[in-house]
Structures are given as C-alpha cells and as structure tokens.
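User: Predict the structure for this protein chain, please.
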Amino acid sequence: MKRTWILGATVWLLADIMSLCGEAKRPEALPGAWMEATEPFHIAGPIYYVGTKGLCVYLLKTPGGDILLSGAMPESAAGLKKSIEKIGVKPGEIKILLISHAHADHVGTLAEMKKWTGAKVEVLKEEVDLLKSGGKLDYLFAKNDRFHFAPVAADAVLKDGDEVALGGVKLKARLTPGHTRGTTTWTTTVEEGGKRYEVVFADGAGINPGTRFVRSPSYPGIAKDYAHTFEVLESLHPDIFLAYHAEFFDMEGKRSRMEKEGVRAWLDPEGYRRIIEERRAAFEEQVAKEGGATPSK
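Assistant: Here is the predicted structure, written as structure tokens:
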C-alpha cells in the first residue's frame, strides 16, 4: 500500500464528509462506495465480511452464537441483512452487537439490526450517550440531520480493557478516543490453517474536517485523547488489521489476492505500522498549525 494512494483516498473521503458538514445533505452527497453492495466473504477464522463496498461490517461466527461488529448508513440495513443471510446466518443466531464509534456511517443500521436479531448492544461507557442521542450530541455533526441516526440504548456498558466473549471467541475493547469520545478498537486472536493470528479492528486515527485541537477545541481534552489513541494503536502489533472504511486498509486489493494467497493476503503488519505513523504525523501537523504542542504520550 503506497503512501500516495493512502493519502489520495483519504483526501477523497474527507472531502465527501466535509460536504456533509455544509449544505449538501442529500444521499447522493455520500461517497458511492458507502452504499454500493458487495458480496460477503470469509477473511480468517470466525471473521466474515458483510458490509458494503466502502463501509466495513464484520460478522464473527462462533458455536455459541454470532457477533456483529459495526454497521453502515441507515439505507443499507436491507442489504446488510442479505449479506448476513448469504453466509448462512439467521438473525436469531446473532447474540451480540458491537460498534466502532457512533457516527451514522457505522451505526446507522444498528437500531434495525437490534430489532431484527434481538441481540444485545454492548458499548463502551464513553459512547453510550452519543449512541442514545442518535448523533445529536456529536461535537461535529450535532446539527447535521444527514448524520443523525435512530437512537439506540446500550444493553451492556463496557469499560476500557473489557472482553466480550462468546463461543470461544474473545474480543477486547480498547478505548481510542478523539474521533468520538468512545471510539473503540477491538482486538482478538483467530486461527486459520493451523496458525494463530493477532487481529486488530483499528479505529480512532482519522480526523474529520472541522475538528479543532488548540483554538476553541472541539471538546476539552480532545488533543490528549488523540495522543492517547495513537499511543494505544502503536502498542498493538497485529498480523491482520481491519478497519471500517475499506480504503484505510486496502480491502479491495487484499480481497483480490485472497483467492491465490488465502489468509496471507491479509497479513500486513508493516502496512498497519505505516498508516498509524502517517495518521499520527497528520495529527501532530494539525496541532502545530493551530499553534499548539503535541500532548505528551
């Protein structure tokens, strides 16, 4: 994954999100890939991809029931159901619903999934109020109707470091705040072909246009929160890293190699380290432009 490609994709994505912060609130203002259906597929161990072409949603199959991680825009609920059914999962088999962070492009389908599956929603305590508000408490998108979503109440409230366990699969919640106060990175270990792999569902490194760190900060302590996020992300050493926007981890490129390479297509520890370094550099550059000093790690 080349640096120029990553930055180009990031600029494209952020430009679309920026348009949402202004007057453009029509569905067509969203990146097309966010809404475009794609075939579900197996990644490794219990992990299956069931999202859209641009917004990543994962289903983890276990003998004790299934876990659905993240979601997409509200309009994608029907397509998400179809993808889940295509991999042979019935709604009642999904027992737990987890989130990455409470923005509409990742939790817009959550209320419908909760109704459809009857599963329990488990969320870090820092994200409970934002999720329950339907996005109306968000520091950037509170006044943007297009980025509101159906409110969802948490059934279980987690804290940083808690584990969610089901059918032999364990997911550990790591608080990586700043993008929202309760943005969550999930980690797990899976087995594929007789080998074990550390997996990180990374979140929190992205900075949306309009975020302020020094001058009239978007919320008190946001710069320290981002610094903490990068410290956490840098402490992780995944074999496989996944995320919630496809271009963040070159999902299409890895998927295209999967038929020949199998799980090896997803092994990318160097890519993970590189992109986290680039995102930290972007954060430090913005803090400096605002006349501040990077908070201590």
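The longest strand covers residues 184-192.
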